[in-house]
Amino acid sequence: xxxxxxxxxxxxxxGEPAGIGADIILSSYxxxxxRALPAFGVIGCARTLRHRAQLAKLSAAEIIPVTDxxxxxxxxxxxxxxxxxxxEHESEAGTPSSNSAKQVIEWMDMxxxxxxxxxxxxxxxxxxxxxxxxxAGFRHEGHTDYLAHLxxxxxxxAEPVMMLSAGDFRTIPLSVHIPLAQASSAVxxxxxxAQAQVIDRDLNRYFDIAQPRIAIAGLNPHAGENGTIGLEDxxxxxxxxxxxxxxxxxxxxxxxxxTLFHEQARETYDVAxxxxxxxxxxxxxAIGFHEGVNTTLGLPFVRTSPDHGTALELxxxxxxxxxxxxxALMQAERMTLAKHMAQDLVSSHAS
Length: 351
Description:
The chain is an alpha/beta fold and 351 residues long. The chain folds into two domains: 1-158 and 299-351, 3-Layer(aba) Sandwich (Isopropylmalate Dehydrogenase), CATH 3.40.718.10; 161-295, 3-Layer(aba) Sandwich (Isopropylmalate Dehydrogenase), CATH 3.40.718. The protein has helices at residues 21-35, 46-55, 72-76, 101-116, 130-135, 143-153, 180-183, 189-207, 232-246, 263-266, 277-288, 323-350, and strands spanning 2-3, 10-13, 37-38, 40-44, 63-66, 80-84, 122-125, 161-166, 169-173, 214-217, 251-255, 271-274, 293-297, 303-306. The strands form two sheets. The chain has a twelve-stranded mixed beta sheet, with helices on both faces. Helix 3 (72-76) links the parallel strand 5 and strand 6.
Protein backbone atom coordinates (compact mmCIF):
# COMPACT_ATOMS: atom_id res chain seq x y z
CA UNK A 1 0.00 0.00 0.00
CA UNK A 2 2.69 2.49 0.95
CA UNK A 3 6.04 3.68 -0.24
CA UNK A 4 8.36 3.05 2.73
CA UNK A 5 11.47 4.74 1.41
CA UNK A 6 11.12 8.07 3.21
CA UNK A 7 12.52 8.18 6.76
CA UNK A 8 9.34 9.56 8.37
CA UNK A 9 5.71 9.76 7.31
CA UNK A 10 4.05 12.89 5.97
CA UNK A 11 1.57 14.83 8.06
CA UNK A 12 -1.63 16.33 6.63
CA UNK A 13 -3.66 19.14 8.16
CA UNK A 14 -7.40 18.79 7.65
CA GLY A 15 -7.93 22.47 6.80
CA GLU A 16 -11.36 24.11 6.93
CA PRO A 17 -13.64 21.43 8.42
CA ALA A 18 -16.66 22.64 6.41
CA GLY A 19 -14.75 22.34 3.12
CA ILE A 20 -13.57 19.41 1.04
CA GLY A 21 -10.38 18.81 3.02
CA ALA A 22 -11.88 15.82 4.82
CA ASP A 23 -13.37 14.47 1.57
CA ILE A 24 -10.13 14.52 -0.41
CA ILE A 25 -8.12 13.09 2.48
CA LEU A 26 -10.52 10.16 2.79
CA SER A 27 -10.72 9.63 -0.98
CA SER A 28 -6.94 9.67 -1.27
CA TYR A 29 -6.54 7.14 1.51
CA UNK A 30 -9.02 4.81 -0.18
CA UNK A 31 -7.00 5.06 -3.40
CA UNK A 32 -3.68 4.40 -1.65
CA UNK A 33 -3.89 0.62 -2.08
CA UNK A 34 -3.61 0.87 -5.83
CA ARG A 35 -1.37 3.93 -6.11
CA ALA A 36 1.50 3.28 -3.69
CA LEU A 37 0.94 6.57 -1.92
CA PRO A 38 3.36 7.61 0.83
CA ALA A 39 2.22 6.95 4.38
CA PHE A 40 0.56 9.96 5.95
CA GLY A 41 -1.25 10.87 9.11
CA VAL A 42 -3.86 13.56 9.63
CA ILE A 43 -4.00 16.29 12.24
CA GLY A 44 -7.67 17.09 12.61
CA CYS A 45 -10.94 16.07 14.17
CA ALA A 46 -11.57 12.31 14.04
CA ARG A 47 -15.29 12.83 14.73
CA THR A 48 -15.62 15.16 11.73
CA LEU A 49 -13.72 12.75 9.50
CA ARG A 50 -16.01 9.86 10.49
CA HIS A 51 -19.13 11.94 9.89
CA ARG A 52 -17.85 13.11 6.51
CA ALA A 53 -16.96 9.56 5.53
CA GLN A 54 -20.60 8.56 6.04
CA LEU A 55 -21.97 11.68 4.37
CA ALA A 56 -19.78 11.37 1.27
CA LYS A 57 -20.10 7.57 1.11
CA LEU A 58 -16.41 7.12 1.93
CA SER A 59 -16.98 5.04 5.06
CA ALA A 60 -14.72 2.23 3.82
CA ALA A 61 -11.88 4.32 5.23
CA GLU A 62 -11.38 3.34 8.88
CA ILE A 63 -10.34 6.26 11.11
CA ILE A 64 -7.76 5.19 13.72
CA PRO A 65 -6.69 7.75 16.34
CA VAL A 66 -2.98 7.76 17.21
CA THR A 67 -1.15 9.61 19.95
CA ASP A 68 2.28 9.94 18.35
CA UNK A 69 3.64 10.51 14.85
CA UNK A 70 5.84 7.43 15.20
CA UNK A 71 2.68 5.27 15.03
CA UNK A 72 1.53 6.62 11.68
CA UNK A 73 3.37 4.32 9.28
CA UNK A 74 2.28 1.05 10.90
CA UNK A 75 -1.30 2.20 11.41
CA UNK A 76 -1.55 3.42 7.79
CA UNK A 77 -1.61 -0.19 6.61
CA UNK A 78 -4.87 -0.76 8.53
CA UNK A 79 -6.62 2.60 8.52
CA UNK A 80 -6.23 6.36 8.34
CA UNK A 81 -4.08 7.52 11.30
CA UNK A 82 -5.42 10.67 12.96
CA UNK A 83 -3.74 12.80 15.61
CA UNK A 84 -7.09 13.79 17.05
CA UNK A 85 -7.56 17.44 18.02
CA UNK A 86 -11.36 17.64 18.27
CA UNK A 87 -13.39 20.64 17.21
CA GLU A 88 -15.02 22.45 20.11
CA HIS A 89 -18.13 23.08 17.97
CA GLU A 90 -19.72 20.82 15.38
CA SER A 91 -18.97 21.73 11.77
CA GLU A 92 -21.55 21.41 9.02
CA ALA A 93 -20.36 20.51 5.52
CA GLY A 94 -20.52 23.57 3.28
CA THR A 95 -21.09 26.07 6.12
CA PRO A 96 -17.83 27.49 7.49
CA SER A 97 -17.80 29.10 10.92
CA SER A 98 -15.28 31.11 12.89
CA ASN A 99 -16.02 28.69 15.75
CA SER A 100 -13.62 26.26 14.06
CA ALA A 101 -10.78 28.75 13.65
CA LYS A 102 -9.05 27.94 16.94
CA GLN A 103 -8.62 24.28 16.01
CA VAL A 104 -7.69 25.00 12.37
CA ILE A 105 -4.84 27.18 13.63
CA GLU A 106 -3.90 24.60 16.27
CA TRP A 107 -3.63 21.94 13.57
CA MET A 108 -1.17 24.11 11.64
CA ASP A 109 0.84 24.82 14.79
CA MET A 110 1.09 21.13 15.59
CA UNK A 111 2.17 20.19 12.06
CA UNK A 112 5.00 22.73 12.07
CA UNK A 113 6.23 21.55 15.48
CA UNK A 114 6.34 17.95 14.24
CA UNK A 115 8.16 18.95 11.05
CA UNK A 116 10.75 21.09 12.84
CA UNK A 117 11.34 18.27 15.34
CA UNK A 118 11.97 15.81 12.50
CA UNK A 119 9.05 13.59 13.53
CA UNK A 120 7.43 13.94 10.10
CA UNK A 121 9.16 14.35 6.76
CA UNK A 122 6.89 17.06 5.39
CA UNK A 123 3.54 18.82 5.64
CA UNK A 124 0.63 18.68 3.20
CA UNK A 125 -1.95 21.29 4.12
CA UNK A 126 -5.66 21.08 3.43
CA UNK A 127 -7.31 24.26 2.14
CA UNK A 128 -8.38 26.83 4.73
CA UNK A 129 -11.18 29.42 4.69
CA UNK A 130 -9.44 32.72 5.36
CA UNK A 131 -12.59 34.74 5.98
CA UNK A 132 -13.57 32.72 9.04
CA UNK A 133 -10.01 32.84 10.36
CA UNK A 134 -9.97 36.63 9.97
CA UNK A 135 -13.30 36.83 11.80
CA ALA A 136 -11.66 34.98 14.69
CA GLY A 137 -8.75 37.43 14.82
CA PHE A 138 -6.20 35.69 12.57
CA ARG A 139 -3.68 38.35 11.59
CA HIS A 140 -1.71 36.67 8.82
CA GLU A 141 -2.17 36.96 5.05
CA GLY A 142 -2.73 33.24 4.66
CA HIS A 143 -1.43 29.73 5.10
CA THR A 144 2.07 30.31 3.73
CA ASP A 145 2.65 33.50 5.67
CA TYR A 146 1.58 31.83 8.91
CA LEU A 147 3.77 28.76 8.40
CA ALA A 148 6.76 31.03 7.75
CA HIS A 149 5.89 33.00 10.90
CA LEU A 150 5.87 29.80 12.96
CA UNK A 151 9.26 28.78 11.57
CA UNK A 152 10.83 32.16 12.37
CA UNK A 153 9.23 32.16 15.81
CA UNK A 154 10.93 28.80 16.45
CA UNK A 155 14.30 30.27 15.44
CA UNK A 156 14.50 29.06 11.84
CA UNK A 157 15.04 31.29 8.79
CA ALA A 158 12.18 31.41 6.29
CA GLU A 159 12.01 33.01 2.84
CA PRO A 160 8.68 31.69 1.54
CA VAL A 161 8.26 31.46 -2.23
CA MET A 162 5.05 30.04 -3.69
CA MET A 163 5.59 27.61 -6.56
CA LEU A 164 2.75 26.14 -8.62
CA SER A 165 3.30 23.02 -10.66
CA ALA A 166 1.60 20.51 -12.89
CA GLY A 167 3.99 17.61 -13.37
CA ASP A 168 7.35 19.14 -14.24
CA PHE A 169 5.85 22.45 -15.38
CA ARG A 170 6.52 25.04 -12.68
CA THR A 171 5.68 28.71 -12.24
CA ILE A 172 6.22 31.19 -9.42
CA PRO A 173 4.40 34.51 -8.95
CA LEU A 174 6.62 37.37 -7.76
CA SER A 175 3.66 38.82 -5.85
CA VAL A 176 0.76 36.79 -4.55
CA HIS A 177 -2.54 38.03 -3.12
CA ILE A 178 -2.52 41.73 -3.93
CA PRO A 179 -4.82 43.69 -6.27
CA LEU A 180 -3.69 43.77 -9.89
CA ALA A 181 -3.53 47.58 -9.68
CA GLN A 182 -0.69 47.17 -7.17
CA ALA A 183 1.16 44.34 -8.91
CA SER A 184 3.52 46.54 -10.94
CA SER A 185 4.67 48.29 -7.76
CA ALA A 186 5.73 44.92 -6.36
CA VAL A 187 8.08 44.33 -9.30
CA UNK A 188 11.45 45.32 -7.89
CA UNK A 189 14.94 44.17 -8.68
CA UNK A 190 15.50 43.15 -5.08
CA UNK A 191 12.39 40.94 -5.06
CA UNK A 192 13.32 39.25 -8.34
CA UNK A 193 16.87 38.53 -7.18
CA ALA A 194 15.80 37.31 -3.74
CA GLN A 195 13.17 34.93 -5.11
CA ALA A 196 15.44 33.62 -7.86
CA GLN A 197 18.12 32.81 -5.28
CA VAL A 198 15.64 30.74 -3.26
CA ILE A 199 14.43 29.05 -6.44
CA ASP A 200 17.97 28.21 -7.54
CA ARG A 201 18.82 26.69 -4.15
CA ASP A 202 15.60 24.76 -3.55
CA LEU A 203 15.12 23.29 -7.02
CA ASN A 204 18.59 21.86 -6.53
CA ARG A 205 17.87 20.69 -2.98
CA TYR A 206 14.40 19.24 -3.47
CA PHE A 207 14.17 18.39 -7.18
CA ASP A 208 17.74 17.35 -7.94
CA ILE A 209 18.13 20.01 -10.67
CA ALA A 210 21.82 20.91 -10.51
CA GLN A 211 21.54 24.32 -12.16
CA PRO A 212 17.89 25.30 -12.59
CA ARG A 213 17.01 27.26 -15.71
CA ILE A 214 14.87 30.19 -14.58
CA ALA A 215 12.83 32.03 -17.20
CA ILE A 216 11.92 35.53 -16.02
CA ALA A 217 8.61 36.72 -17.47
CA GLY A 218 8.11 40.26 -18.64
CA LEU A 219 5.51 42.45 -16.99
CA ASN A 220 4.21 44.48 -19.92
CA PRO A 221 2.98 43.36 -23.35
CA HIS A 222 5.90 42.10 -25.45
CA ALA A 223 8.18 42.59 -22.42
CA GLY A 224 7.87 46.34 -22.83
CA GLU A 225 9.43 46.55 -26.32
CA ASN A 226 12.56 48.28 -24.99
CA GLY A 227 10.67 50.84 -22.96
CA THR A 228 8.00 51.79 -25.48
CA ILE A 229 5.28 49.91 -23.54
CA GLY A 230 6.21 50.63 -19.95
CA LEU A 231 9.64 50.91 -18.37
CA GLU A 232 9.62 48.06 -15.83
CA ASP A 233 10.97 45.38 -18.16
CA UNK A 234 13.89 47.48 -19.37
CA UNK A 235 14.74 49.34 -16.17
CA UNK A 236 13.94 46.80 -13.43
CA UNK A 237 13.60 43.24 -14.72
CA UNK A 238 16.47 43.18 -17.24
CA UNK A 239 19.06 44.55 -14.75
CA UNK A 240 17.90 41.98 -12.17
CA UNK A 241 18.41 39.20 -14.71
CA UNK A 242 21.93 40.45 -15.44
CA UNK A 243 22.68 40.52 -11.71
CA UNK A 244 21.53 36.91 -11.39
CA UNK A 245 23.60 35.83 -14.36
CA UNK A 246 26.68 37.51 -12.89
CA UNK A 247 26.06 35.52 -9.69
CA UNK A 248 26.13 32.27 -11.66
CA UNK A 249 22.38 31.64 -11.72
CA UNK A 250 20.93 30.39 -15.02
CA UNK A 251 18.29 33.07 -15.45
CA UNK A 252 17.16 34.64 -18.70
CA UNK A 253 14.62 37.25 -19.70
CA UNK A 254 12.52 39.24 -19.54
CA UNK A 255 10.53 36.99 -21.85
CA UNK A 256 7.23 38.18 -23.29
CA UNK A 257 4.63 36.28 -21.29
CA UNK A 258 2.47 35.52 -24.32
CA THR A 259 5.24 33.31 -25.76
CA LEU A 260 6.46 31.74 -22.53
CA PHE A 261 4.04 28.90 -21.95
CA HIS A 262 3.60 27.00 -25.21
CA GLU A 263 5.00 23.47 -25.36
CA GLN A 264 8.24 24.28 -27.17
CA ALA A 265 9.01 27.24 -24.89
CA ARG A 266 8.43 25.15 -21.75
CA GLU A 267 11.29 22.87 -22.78
CA THR A 268 13.76 25.75 -22.38
CA TYR A 269 13.35 26.27 -18.62
CA ASP A 270 12.76 24.43 -15.35
CA VAL A 271 10.68 27.18 -13.78
CA ALA A 272 9.13 30.48 -14.86
CA UNK A 273 9.31 33.40 -12.43
CA UNK A 274 6.22 35.45 -13.28
CA UNK A 275 5.50 39.03 -12.34
CA UNK A 276 2.06 38.64 -10.75
CA UNK A 277 -0.42 36.06 -9.47
CA UNK A 278 -2.56 35.24 -12.50
CA UNK A 279 0.37 35.32 -14.92
CA UNK A 280 1.74 32.33 -13.01
CA UNK A 281 -1.44 30.47 -12.08
CA UNK A 282 -3.40 30.58 -15.33
CA UNK A 283 -0.95 28.46 -17.37
CA UNK A 284 -0.58 25.85 -14.61
CA UNK A 285 -4.33 25.47 -14.23
CA ALA A 286 -4.85 25.42 -17.98
CA ILE A 287 -2.27 22.67 -18.46
CA GLY A 288 -3.04 20.52 -15.40
CA PHE A 289 -6.10 21.77 -13.55
CA HIS A 290 -6.74 18.62 -11.51
CA GLU A 291 -3.06 17.81 -10.91
CA GLY A 292 -1.86 21.23 -9.76
CA VAL A 293 0.28 21.45 -6.62
CA ASN A 294 1.15 24.48 -4.50
CA THR A 295 4.66 24.07 -3.05
CA THR A 296 6.28 26.53 -0.66
CA LEU A 297 10.00 26.91 -1.24
CA GLY A 298 12.21 28.71 1.26
CA LEU A 299 10.87 27.06 4.43
CA PRO A 300 12.94 24.88 6.79
CA PHE A 301 10.56 21.98 6.07
CA VAL A 302 8.75 20.53 3.07
CA ARG A 303 5.27 21.94 2.53
CA THR A 304 2.85 21.26 -0.31
CA SER A 305 -0.90 21.64 -0.74
CA PRO A 306 -3.51 20.97 -3.39
CA ASP A 307 -3.87 23.86 -5.81
CA HIS A 308 -7.50 24.62 -5.00
CA GLY A 309 -9.64 26.07 -2.26
CA THR A 310 -12.25 24.76 0.14
CA ALA A 311 -14.92 24.12 -2.56
CA LEU A 312 -17.68 24.40 0.04
CA GLU A 313 -20.38 23.45 -2.45
CA LEU A 314 -18.77 20.01 -2.93
CA UNK A 315 -18.18 19.20 0.73
CA UNK A 316 -19.93 16.00 1.75
CA UNK A 317 -21.28 15.27 -1.74
CA UNK A 318 -18.76 12.58 -2.65
CA UNK A 319 -17.92 14.54 -5.81
CA UNK A 320 -14.68 16.23 -4.71
CA UNK A 321 -11.77 15.26 -6.96
CA UNK A 322 -8.74 14.20 -4.87
CA UNK A 323 -6.25 14.31 -7.78
CA UNK A 324 -4.59 17.58 -6.73
CA UNK A 325 -4.27 16.37 -3.14
CA UNK A 326 -2.75 13.09 -4.30
CA UNK A 327 -0.31 15.05 -6.47
CA ALA A 328 0.58 17.16 -3.42
CA LEU A 329 1.31 14.01 -1.41
CA MET A 330 3.51 12.62 -4.17
CA GLN A 331 5.33 15.94 -4.58
CA ALA A 332 6.03 16.14 -0.84
CA GLU A 333 7.38 12.59 -0.85
CA ARG A 334 9.58 13.33 -3.85
CA MET A 335 10.97 16.42 -2.14
CA THR A 336 11.70 14.66 1.14
CA LEU A 337 13.49 11.82 -0.63
CA ALA A 338 15.65 14.25 -2.61
CA LYS A 339 16.46 16.20 0.54
CA HIS A 340 17.52 13.11 2.49
CA MET A 341 19.50 11.67 -0.41
CA ALA A 342 21.43 14.95 -0.62
CA GLN A 343 22.04 14.89 3.14
CA ASP A 344 23.24 11.28 2.97
CA LEU A 345 25.62 12.21 0.14
CA VAL A 346 27.08 15.08 2.17
CA SER A 347 27.47 12.80 5.20
CA SER A 348 29.23 10.11 3.18
CA HIS A 349 31.67 12.65 1.74
CA ALA A 350 32.33 14.06 5.22
CA SER A 351 33.16 10.62 6.58
